[in-house]
Amino acid sequence: MVSETGESAEAFFADAEYLSAENLPGSEQEAETLVLYASQSLSAGEGRQINWAGYENGAFVSWKDDGTGTEYYLSDVSQDAACEQLLMDMGQEANNQQFDLITWLLLLFAGFALIILAVNALYHKSYTVYMAAITEALLFLIVFGGVALTLQGRRTSEAEENEKFSRYYLELLSENLDAGSLQNMEEDSFYSADAYYAVWNRLSAYVKDDRTESFFADLCLVRTEDQMILVSASGLNGLSLESVYGNGEEFLEVELETLDGLSCSLTAVLTMEREGWFTDSFPWVYLLAAVLLFLLGSAVCLGLLFRQGREISGLSQAMLAASGGQEVFSKGTARSKDVALMWNSFMEMQKKINRINYARYRIYESCYRFAPKDIEKIFGRDSITEVEGGDFVRLKGTVAFVTSDEPEAADEESALRMSKFVTLIEKHQEESGGYFVPGNSDLTSLRVLFLEKNSHSVDFGTAFLNEFSASSGLDGMRTGILLHYSEFLYAVAGNERQCFPFLLSEEKEQMERFAAWFRELDLKLVMTDEVRTLEKATEDCRYIGYIFMENSGRKLELYEVLNACAPVERRLKLDTEEKFQKAIRLFYQHDFYLARNGFSDVLKVNPFDQISKWYLFTCEKYLNQAYTSGDICQLRPKD
Questions:
Q1: 250 φ, ψ to 5°?
Q2: Which residues contact 551 (CB under 8 A, 6 or more apart)?
Q3: Do the beta carbons of residue 429 and residue 448 sit within 8 Å?
Q4: What pLDDT score does 43 carry?
Q5: 605 by DSSP, 3-state: which?
Q6: What is the DSSP string of 570-586?
Q7: How far is residue 574 from each of residues 170, 526, 527, 568, 606, measured CA to CA in Å?
Q8: Rounded CA gap, 608 and 285, in Å?
Q9: Backbone angles phi, psi at 638, to 5 degrees
Q10: Which helix (H) or strand (E) holds 382?
Q11: Is residue 314 within 8 Å of residue 333, measured between CB atoms?
């Protein structure tokens, strides 16, 4: 260690036991304090100054201001240069540069994030993001560019001022140097002569003077030939100017001529900072003010931009909802005049669209009331407007032939009664998934179609007849339903102005006659055996006979659904079920006498059983005939 005055140097040592592995620097148990003991001391000598001290080949050596010992210092400098040439492997380099590596990685991720944001903004063409990016870039350039220009101007002016005053003081010093002292500077005896101390004191006074210490780091007399320092205020003599100060410093020179003809220069090592912008002398308050101003400006600009963007986004969402068919009842918040104007225009458009849609809906609703509902589903279309004249489809399903008595009078009461009757049918038709098929214009014969995949015709008939019998205003009116499963042709006839849907089947006309006849026999709900099997309606069913289809030649067995009867009627028919079925079997065996007795027994218990009466009269008819031909056991209406 060299003392601050350079008058002495001391060497120290530490106890070997103390310098154990766990106390060495970098260890986990590193000691907080290192105790050193003085070993040797070295004095500069009278009038001398030590610039550097160290060990060289086991000897305590020093470099003094008279130039002695420069070889030891140069040796140490060369060793430092050799160490600087050593190469580190990748791991050592990464460990040594880990802070820079972390900084680089953070900047890399930030760069990728900015690239992704820019690409996303370009892809979606977000003009709000464009405007925000441009605003931020301009604000950054204005704020930090202004700070950079201000600081640059300040540094430039300071540098120009320092150079101007430095040159002035340097020229003043060169004029005031005693010419008599500027001789014999190359001789070894010069450093012990009074002339050396005169020059040294003169140079040191300028370096340490309050007026000039801010300009000069060192003042040197340098030999022009090899740039070796002859005399310096710091005492760093005997070495080249470059080896002491390198190339990083800035120098000012004034040429001098000594009395003995030695060419030298008075060189000033300036104190101006040349390390770059961010040094210890950097005015950080400027940067802090710039950051705060940038953040404040960014908050204001981005707030205004995104506030306007949010208003436009709300308007665009409302327009998107309106284009999807939704109704927007109130406009969003808009503080800017242009967005508020757009909202007002949009709401006026919405009102006009609502009026147009309402008018269309009323027209569509009016037309739909007089058209078969859900006809488009039968044809597999999305809308009833897609159904056109000439369209047809072949399908299998169950048709409910609903018959009723004709109104006794053509008056208002009959119209209200038929309206209630049809409304009741429509209610249960919709609940059971059936489709109305247009029929007789006087509404005494209606047809409801149930597709094969939605077989609920028995449930429909049972629910409708139960509610029908309990409805006020329909008392005295008779109705009946015949359920028949078959293949049908459903078609539409007409043109774009008016169309008529219709249902075609080889058995339709005959089934309508049987439906009307069963209503006259007071049979509420009758179904064929195919319907009974398809819908698994086997409980509380009474077999009542069979019929032949003239066109197809099919034999259809018929069953009466007792659940559709009134409770008293249902109980009586269940009580006489066994006798009724036994009488039918005798009837089929052409034992009309015993069959007549059986049907008579049924009527004694249930005198309102009209189908038993028909069988009774048919038995008496054939008992009185000597000869019969054909199938006389099938059900048939009166001729």
A1: -110, 135
A2: 506, 507, 510
A3: yes
A4: 78
A5: helix
A6: HHHHHHTHHHHHHHHHH
A7: 138, 16, 18, 10, 10
A8: 112
A9: -65, 140
A10: none
A11: yes
- Interhelix angle 412-432/457-470, rounded to 10 degrees, is 140
Rg (CA), the chain: 59
CB neighbour list of residue 432: distance below 8 Å, 6 or more residues apart: 450, 454, 456, 457, 459, 460, 463
Q: Is the CB of residue 503 less than 8 Å from the CB of residue 437?
A: yes
- Amino acid identity, position 457: S
Q: What residues contact 202, with CB distance under 8 A and at least 6 apart?
A: 173, 176, 177, 178
The reported pLDDT for the residue numbered 11 is 83
Q: What are the start-end ranges of the E strands in 534-639? A: 541-548, 555-561
**What angle in degrees, to the nearest 10, is found between the helix axes of 284-323 and 127-176?**
170
For residues 432 and 454, what is the distance between their CA atoms, to the nearest angstrom?
8
Residues 136, 139, 143, CA angle at the centre, nearest 5°? 140
485 DSSP β-pair partners: 398
Q: Which residue has the tokens 């290192």?
A: 34
Q: Are 250 and 274 in contact (CB under 8 A)?
A: yes
- Residue 54 CB partners (closer than 8 Å, separation 6+): 61, 62, 72, 76
Q: What φ, ψ does residue 636 adopt, rounded to 5°?
A: -155, 145
Q: Which residue in 219, 239, 225, 230 sits closest to 188, CA to CA? A: 230
Task: At 100, list the tokens.
Answer: 């820079």
Q: Which of 55, 45, 59, 54 is nearest to 6 (CA)?
A: 45
> Rounded distance, CA 106 to CA 90, Å?
20
Rounded-to-integer distance, Cα 515 and Cα 446, Å: 11
Question: What tokens appear for 380 in the block?
Answer: 């597999």
Query: Which token pair is 567?
Result: 């409770």
249: nearest Cα among 241, 240, 261: 241
In this prediction, residue 298 carries a pLDDT of 81
**Is 182 within 8 Å of 258 (Cβ atoms)?**
yes
Which 8-state DSSP code applies to residue 17?
T
Give the count of beta carbons closer than 10 Å to the beta carbon of residue 416. Answer: 11
Is residue 122 within 8 A of residue 129, CB to CB? The reply is: no
The set of residues, in sequence order, having a beta carbon less than 8 Å from that of 478 and lying 6+ positions away, is: 404, 405, 519, 522
Cβ-proximal residues to 538 (8 Å cutoff; 6+ apart), any chain:
532
User: What is the block-wise mean pLDDT of the chain (639 residues), using blocks of 10 residues?
Assistant: 80 65 52 64 77 78 76 64 60 69 78 73 64 78 81 76 79 76 77 82 80 79 87 85 75 78 83 54 74 83 70 72 69 67 78 77 61 70 73 86 80 80 84 76 79 85 89 81 89 73 81 91 93 87 92 89 92 94 94 93 94 93 77 81
DSSP structural state of residue 16:
T
Determine the pLDDT at residue 359.
75
Sign of CA dihedral 175, 177, 181, 186: negative
User: Any bridge partners for residue 251, and if so which?
Assistant: 269
Helix (H, G, I), strand (E, B) or coil at 404: strand
| CA–CA separation, 629 and 606 (whole Å) | 32
Cα-Cα-Cα-Cα dihedral sign, residues 178, 181, 183, 186? negative
Token pair, residue 523, equals 């049979």
Q: What is the pLDDT of residue 274?
A: 46
CB 53 within 8 A of CB 46: no
Buried b (16+ CB within 10 A) or exposed e, 87-126: eeeeeeeeeeeeeeeeeeeeeeeeeeeeeeeeeebeeeee
